[in-house]
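pls ignore typos typing on phone
nicotinamide-adenine-dinucleotide + seq
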Amino acid sequence: MSEKLPLAIVGCGGMGHRHLYGLAELQRAGLSPFELVGACDPNLDNAHSLADQAEERLGTRPQPVKDLAELASVAPVQAVDITTLPAHHHTVAIEAMERGWHALCEKPMGLTTRACKQMIAKAQETGCVLSVAENYRRDPVNRLAKALLSAGIIGRPRLMQHTTMGGGDGMLISVWRHQKNASGVLLDVGVHFADIMEYFLGEADTAYAQTRLHEPTRKNPVAGRDVSSGSPGGVYERWQKDMPAEFTATADDAAYATILFKSGAVAQYIEDHAAHGQNLWQRSIHGSLGSLELPGDRSGQRLTLHRDGADSINHQALLDLVPDHRLDEATAALFGGDQLFDYHLPFPEIDRKLIAIEYHELGTCIQKGRQPEVDAHQGARSVGLSYSLLESQIAGRALSVDAVCNDQINAYQAEINEHLGI
Ligand SMILES: NC(=O)c1ccc[n+]([C@@H]2O[C@H](COP(=O)([O-])OP(=O)(O)OC[C@H]3O[C@@H](n4cnc5c(N)ncnc54)[C@H](O)[C@@H]3O)[C@@H](O)[C@H]2O)c1
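k done
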């Protein structure tokens, strides 16, 4: 077996721990090319927590360190997994690549399109792999949807509807997700949906949106209490109890948008994290021959194909329509088959399997000199598309998504760039 690649997790909060669970999942499957040598976080309690859990799950203890300089002095690192707060993604990634380390970076790739451009430039200059950890498209059910679209099963896509509504005035996981200068929800969650839209429909062309900050005061119901909040992966409670019971939100929390794609397809997009009453989820793609009704990402639920004059299909027969469709080696090994139309797993397990796939791909890219599927260009486009909605609200008109991606339109982001000093 080839030598293991020395890896460090940089950012040992909620997602850092979830990534560790993903790495352990990959190791259990016998597919890990990595040895975890470092747990890096300026909050050393978090770094030690991750190192302790790594020892339990991986059998070896990474060194807890406070920054990349200390990391370089304790271990011969070849790759970092960046799970810090979004405001630090570009500084950590750029410093890592300057040290010659490859990087897997959590979404949003950078806090602004300008931060993303700096990361792209550094990846080009150093030749390091820079992969963006976009997990939703890796869901086996989304892979099947993509295969059906590519095979023309619903004809030419005309319209995508995406609606996600809920949240009321509650805190979404953490305070920073409601702060414009730290990554508000329309960026933090929006990049996932931006990636999914471009995955299914190709590059976006223009976007028009109304965005709002509906709930300027957010509430944290578990402040001061040792109770489960049902947070993703069950990992955030220990930090949430120390967050304030009530705080001021500065980032817009709802977007109502129309997005035109270069293919001519249109998306009607609603992302409302402040909705009261009924929670809504809908994602569907409507083409010239039929439509696809898509389930929530990471749910394992089935998609449904509707075609004129035929029964709806949501079972094995979907696979017969795309006989050449195969999941990649890691996905097939982790989810138990290379052709799937559903799966039945608890969320923490789904979560860690998808992260394991991201790690596996990173290892392959490093070892075989390949480009990652969600490379810096694609990761940056998701940031640009998400900001296109916020920039459109300020401009009062539809905007070119390319112009936002290229940092030519940046009025909304100006304050954030100033805050970052870029
Ligand atoms: N893909 C997904 O499904 C998903 C889910 C949750 C979070 N995320 C992403 O993961 C990232 C982290 O989110 P989180 O929920 O873990 O946040 P978190 O607040 O729980 O943890 C962030 C951690 O980063 C640390 N940190 C801050 N500055 C740092 C620096 N310069 N170097 C190293 N560590 C630093 C903090 O001390 C903290 O421990 C964000 O980009 C978020 O969008 C992705």
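The two ends are 44 Å apart (CA to CA). The domain at 5-136+371-375 is CATH 3.40.50.720 (Rossmann fold). more later
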